[in-house]
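Folding Query — how this chain folds
Tokens — whole-number codes for backbone shape
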Amino acid sequence: MSTVEHVGGPADPPTPTPEQFLEIDASPEFADLKRTLRSWVFPMTAFFLLWYAVYVLLGAFAHDFMAIKVWGNINVGIFLGVAQIITTFLITGLYVRFANSKLDPKAQAIRDSATVAAAANVSHGNGARA
């Protein structure tokens, strides 16, 4: 993401029309992109929510277990709390890797085909530029 404000000009790619956006939404390529996203996001979300629920339930109902000293003044509760934070960063890193390798190429292919279709519309006088 750029911090420099971009002003439209002749080098900007044409913007697809609303009808073309609806075609993209109904395309098998876009359905595959959504399916790929959901195949990763839903299981990972379920995993993290379950992991977090276990942590909260242990904190609420297993006081003796959470108070067990692991090392010095570090008890199981603190250890699991830090593990929650580490898990969040780990999941974020895994998602970035997944998105870069699986989602971005599919999204770019859809974007490229939409740009070609929009350019054809502009060259035929049927569309507008952004």
Remarks:
- The helical segments are 18-26, 28-61, 63-66, 76-123.
